[in-house]
């Protein structure tokens, strides 16, 4: 039996085989590994997106909590940031006293990481009620101030001379670096 | 001299069969290459996206840490402020109670409020008035109470009443005066 194949047919067969070989090599050496890589990277990317979304949700939750705290405690935050001013304090509280004198401002030992200043105060009041009003006013004032023992009341004619120590609390610039940041938002 | 009656046809390697095969393989190769290029682009894009997400996540992490520090700090400020405010109110109540404690017939000339004590100076018409009207309530508040009397000149008596709360644990008077 004689197989009669023309040269042209051989040429077509060879070309077809070459192209098929190219397709197979291309597929197995490049396309399929790249496809596998694509699947791995897609999975990693989805995982990263999921993780990011979790962090974002927690971030938003924390931000909301922070903003709520800041808005609820705005006065307290501002009071801790404001440096104590003797003149301003006297001006604000003179209404409760016939006379008010702040004699000394000393830095005391830090409390809970806050700077504490001790202020000696001498005043004249006509009635203890003035002192009660002063204590009420302190809690709504511009600073965080606690009246400290000892407190002395001495009768001087129709007036009462009171002398006491106050503790003024401020942000400690050395330790609390977040203090300024808390108000920045 | 002519050997044929027909005109010779131009011979070409691109016979219809070859053209068909070339078209078929060209389309196949174009599809494969475009798929490969698409995958390359998507790989690059996923990698880019992942890196961006990681960077953003790290930024969020830092931000969360910073916010948590701020929250903690504000809570600390809140707690200190509340403590100071409560202390002021307790002090106010203590002073109110003290002045309510002093009866009309006894006049105070000086009151020293200490952290764990109270020293009162004043005048009383008699020892009995003092003992019944001021000493008794003071004894119910303070564990240690001492009073000394000396004549005032107009028949009344000056008194100095020293009162202390004794701490069980320390047993010491914590006077700042």
Q: Report strand order across the widest sheet of chain B.
A: 1-2-4-3
The computed structural class of chain B is alpha+beta
What summary fits the major beta sheet of chain A?
4 strands, antiparallel
Greatest interface and its participating residue counts: A-B, 69 and 65 residues
Describe this protein's structure:
The complex is a heterodimer of chains A (185) and B (177). The radius of gyration of chain A is 40 Å and the shape is rod-shaped. Chain A folds into two domains: 72 residues; 87 residues, Alpha-Beta Plaits, CATH 3.30.70. Chain A contains five helices and four strands; from the N terminus they run αααββαββα. Chain A has a four-stranded antiparallel beta sheet with strand order 1-2-4-3. In chain A, α2 crosses α5. The C terminus of chain A is likely disordered. With 185 residues, chain A is an alpha+beta fold. Chain B is an alpha+beta fold and 177 residues long. Chain B folds into two domains: 87 residues; 73 residues, no CATH class. Helix content of chain B is 57%, strand content 18%. Chain B is built from two helices and four strands. In chain B, strands 1-2-4-3 form a four-stranded antiparallel beta sheet, with helices on one face. Chain B is rod-shaped, with a radius of gyration of 51 Å. The termini of chain B are far apart. The C terminus of chain B is likely disordered. The chains are: A alpha+beta (185), B alpha+beta (177).
């Amino acid at each position: 039996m004689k197989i009669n194949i023309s040269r042209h047919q051989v040429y077509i067969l060879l070309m077809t085989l070459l192209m098929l070989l190219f397709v197979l090599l291309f597929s197995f050496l490049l396309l399929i590994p790249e496809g596998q890589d694509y699947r791995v990277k897609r999975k990693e990317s989805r995982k990263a997106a999921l993780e990011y979304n979790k962090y974002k949700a927690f971030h938003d939750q924390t931000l909301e909590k922070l903003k709520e705290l800041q808005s609820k405690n705005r006065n307290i935050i501002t009071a801790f940031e404001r440096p104590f001013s003797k003149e301003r304090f006297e001006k604000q509280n003179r209404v409760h006293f016939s006379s008010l004198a702040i004699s000394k401002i000393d830095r005391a030992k830090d409390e809970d990481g806050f700077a504490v200043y001790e202020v000696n105060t001498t005043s004249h009041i006509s009635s203890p009620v003035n002192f009660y009003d002063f204590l009420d006013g302190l809690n709504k004032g511009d600073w965080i101030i606690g009246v400290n023992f000892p407190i002395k009341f001495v009768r001087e004619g129709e007036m009462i001379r009171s002398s006491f120590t106050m503790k003024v609390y401020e942000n400690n610039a050395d330790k609390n670096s977040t203090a300024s940041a808390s108000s920045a938002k | 001299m002519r050997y044929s009656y027909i005109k010779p046809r131009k011979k070409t390697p691109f016979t219809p069969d070859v053209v068909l095969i070339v078209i078929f393989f060209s389309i196949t190769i174009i599809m494969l290459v475009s798929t490969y290029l698409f995958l390359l682009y998507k790989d690059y894009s996923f990698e880019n996206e992942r890196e961006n997400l990681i960077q953003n996540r790290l930024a969020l992490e830092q931000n969360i840490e910073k916010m948590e520090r701020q929250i903690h700090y504000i809570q600390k400020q809140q707690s200190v402020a509340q403590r100071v405010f409560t202390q002021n109110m307790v002090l106010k109540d203590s002073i109110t109670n003290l002045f309510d404690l002093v009866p009309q017939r006894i006049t105070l000339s000086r009151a020293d409020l200490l952290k764990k004590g109270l020293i009162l100076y004043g005048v009383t018409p008699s020892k009995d008035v003092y003992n019944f009207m001021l000493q008794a309530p003071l004894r119910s508040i303070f564990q240690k109470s001492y009073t000394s009397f000396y004549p005032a000149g107009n028949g009344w008596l000056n008194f100095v009443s020293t009162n202390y709360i004794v701490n069980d644990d320390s047993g010491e008077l914590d006077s700042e005066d």
